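Please fill in the sequence for the structure shown.

STRUCTURE ENCODING:
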């Protein structure tokens, strides 16, 4: 028996026999397959979009809080206001006879209303705005001075009445309208040289109550015009003034058959709306001005008639919504729409650093990178509430880019990787800002950026052995692969 030690037999591989004919499964499983790694990275990128969904829910909750703050301010200032110039309502009675085969004819007296709108009308309004804070939220509020000039042709009243109508001229009334009387500061109305004593009116119409409310969402102030009986066949002039407070939006109903609206204010970010585009507009850093002309055909409502509803004229109410450029919620929501794409692009960047360097990144490190990007959106929301969207984006983006770049330098073990990552991620987050500020072209810019990123990846990995570098030699394998 020899004194020489017998060599220790290596243990059999797992899953195989201890004999020479054992099956070595490791030969069939690539130990360094970048193809499998890329699939894993893509899967992690999709999973990392889930935390972004939780941030979306947070944005939705904070947006609801902001809406509640607006509603709270609106209770004190009047909220969005739509103003309507003067209109005249005159009740009339007429008899309706109903006959049936089995009974004698029955005559019923009905009361309805004649509604008269001006032939022409102009509005000149000026807004003085300010910002009120309710907690973290800023609410744009305003005081509006609106002057109305109108020309009526009272002969249209009698022409619109049905045959046999008994017009009650002594009960004629004139009205002005606004959305919320809590915002009313001053109101005056002068018809044909007569000053009308105005008072709030619960119901402008004295006709058939079965027709339901016909005030078009307007709260009315008005007064009697009994002298109309003397001039019901002549034209006359009207002048009115409303001074009101409100929040977020102001608009003006096309109250005349031909209406011209001139609106100016000191708000730098208006959005013109209300069913008609301004004929002229000017917007600067110090304010805005806009002019609309709504002709009779475009208004879509009769100038005089029986039981006309005010909602036919308030349905066309041009005006301006006071946008808050510092409001972060819409911008953050738009950023979250692109979260999966940008998380994928950052993961793709880390993957390219991995395949072109001598270090390997663990899947847990990719998870940390994805969580950092999700926290970016939360940081963007919270800081934007304090400093506005531009300030919030700058702080959140700089912090996230530095964190991702320094981490890349640590993971891949070189200062050069950190510098490259800084350039790539700074460009990427700059692209996010461009997408948020050019909403009309966001899809185009995002599509081009994604295509360029994929094309660059294809070019940089064109010689990569996707089956597993290190398992076999490859003529086109990238240099400097880890052992």
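FILLED IN BY: designer on duty
SEQUENCE:
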């Amino acid at each position: 028996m020899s004194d020489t030690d017998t060599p220790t037999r290596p243990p059999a591989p797992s899953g195989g026999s201890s004999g020479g004919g054992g099956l070595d499964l490791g030969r069939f499983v690539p130990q360094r397959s970048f193809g499998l790694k890329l699939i894993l990275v893509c899967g992690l990128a999709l999973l990392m979009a889930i935390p972004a969904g939780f941030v979306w829910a947070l944005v939705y909750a904070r947006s609801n809080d902001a809406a509640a703050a607006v509603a709270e301010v609106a209770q004190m200032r009047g909220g969005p206001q739509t103003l309507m110039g003067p209109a005249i309502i005159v009740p009339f009675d007429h008899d309706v006879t109903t006959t049936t085969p089995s009974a004698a004819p029955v005559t019923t007296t009905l009361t309805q209303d004649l509604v008269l709108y001006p032939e022409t009308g102009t509005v000149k309004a000026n807004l003085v705005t300010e910002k009120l804070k309710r907690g973290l939220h800023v609410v744009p509020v305003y005081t509006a001075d609106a002057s109305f000039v109108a020309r009526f042709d009272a002969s249209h009243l009698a022409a619109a009445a049905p045959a046999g109508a008994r017009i009650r001229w002594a009960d004629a009334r004139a009205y002005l309208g606004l959305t919320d009387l809590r915002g009313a500061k001053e109101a005056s109305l002068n018809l044909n040289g007569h000053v009308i004593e105005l008072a709030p009116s619960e119901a402008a119409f004295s006709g058939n109550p079965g027709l339901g409310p016909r005030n078009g969402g307007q709260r009315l102030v008005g007064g009697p015009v009994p002298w109309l009986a003397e001039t019901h066949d002549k034209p006359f002039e009207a002048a009115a003034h409303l001074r009101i407070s409100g929040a977020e939006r102001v608009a003006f109903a096309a109250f005349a058959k031909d209406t011209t609206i001139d609106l100016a204010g000191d708000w730098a970010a208006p959005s013109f709306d209300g069913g008609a585009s301004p004929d002229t507009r000017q917007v600067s850093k110090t304010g805005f001005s806009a002019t609309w002309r709504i002709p009779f055909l475009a208004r879509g409502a009769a100038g005089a008639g029986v039981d006309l509803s005010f909602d036919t004229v308030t349905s066309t109410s041009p005006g301006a919504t006071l946008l808050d450029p510092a409001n972060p919620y819409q911008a953050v929501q738009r950023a979250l729409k692109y979260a999966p794409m940008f998380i994928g692009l950052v993961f793709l960047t880390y993957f390219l650093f991995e395949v072109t360097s001598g270090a390997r990144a663990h899947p847990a490190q990719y998870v940390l990178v994805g969580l950092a990007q999700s926290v970016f959106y939360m940081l963007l929301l919270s800081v934007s509430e304090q400093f506005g969207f531009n300030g919030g984006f700058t702080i959140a983006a700089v912090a996230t880019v530095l964190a991702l770049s320094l981490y890349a330098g640590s993971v891949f073990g070189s200062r050069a990787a950190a510098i490259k990552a800084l350039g790539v991620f700074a460009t990427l987050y700059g692209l996010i800002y461009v997408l948020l500020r050019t909403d009309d072209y966001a899809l185009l810019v995002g599509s081009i950026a994604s295509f360029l990123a994929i094309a660059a990846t294809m070019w940089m990995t064109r010689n990569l052995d996707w089956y597993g570098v290190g398992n076999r030699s490859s003529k086109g394998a990238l240099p400097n692969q880890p052992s």
